[in-house]
Amino acid sequence: METKQADSQKKLLDGVRPSRIVYPIIIGFAAVVYLLIKEVDGNTLSLIDFSWYSLFWICIALVMMLIRDLGYMARLRILTDQTFSWRQAFRIIMLWEFTSAITPSAIGGTSVAILYLNKEGLKVGRSSAVVMSTSFLDELYFILMFPLLILFLDIHQLFMITSPEHSLWLDSLLYFALGGYLVKMVYFIVLTYGLFWNPRGLKWLLLWIFKLPVLRKWKHGANKAGSDIIESSKELRRKPFLFWMKAFMATFWSWTARYWVVNVILLAFMFQGYSITEHIMIFARQLVMWIMMLVSPTPGGSGFSEWVFTKYLGEFLPSAGVAASMALLWRLISYYPYLFIGVYILPRWIKKHFRN
């Protein structure tokens, strides 16, 4: 049994080996170089005025990322009843983000997160409960924020329906976003129902789905996931409302800080006098971008994210060349640091927890 578990853990770690950072870096930089060569001309550099003012706001963008990570660390400590120290929480979050950065966005880092939590001292059942709780809170943030933003913003402008230079993908963007939101809503409802009301019913549904010929080879994994859900439910249903409120507030600040990074980067160069409504619009479009990034097959959305940035937020920048430059700066601040931090931490973490 122990040998089988060790083999399973080894397979998980093989998927997040440090050498895999090469792929997202190559893909991301190749996309940016292509966009820069295609879009940058002699006037592009003259449109970017770098000053001490710019440096100040870039530092604020870095502070936003710090707030994001502190929020995730605080949430992890809340969900584990302060079991982890701040240092442990930092290590786990950095490993989690590293895993997300080197795997396709639809997969993310949650599949390995249970292992990280378990090796840091939590039992497997409780580790599953914590990981599923983070998923529940993340989806709750999106499900609440997206309709609120649509309610207060011009939906035509949000989805660029009236754009004079619209293309096919922009025309269908509204339906794509609504479809993605519907998928998230269904997932959230099923997860909530399974975690808080009927975990055995959710396990039965999983096993029924994985009887299909296409999915049958993953039936064992589905059975284990169902068992984890049952264990998680026992842990979570005992938690008071205040516990969930504190965890959600930490989630709220993490995601909000993450999205404000782009707003702050644009402030650094003040390409135009952005109004409060425009800042909210930029923020809202990032939620839509997140739906699109979820279907990206590349590690961490590399390449695809940069392209979407130039197309969807380019309206707020003076030229396509400037948009490509800002996309690179955005990824340098919000994505690439996790690759290099993970490469530093992961080998030491493996050496500590897998001595043989």
Automatic annotation (TrEMBL):
Signal peptide: none annotated. The chain crosses the membrane at residues 21-38, 50-71, 92-117, 140-161, 173-196, 257-275, 287-308, 328-346. It is a multi-pass membrane protein. It holds the Pfam family LPG_synthase_TM. The keyword Transmembrane applies. Keywords: Cell membrane, Membrane, Transmembrane, Transmembrane helix. It is found in: Cell membrane. Its main location: membrane. NCBIfam families: flippase-like domain. This is Flippase-like domain-containing protein. It comes from Paralabilibaculum antarcticum.
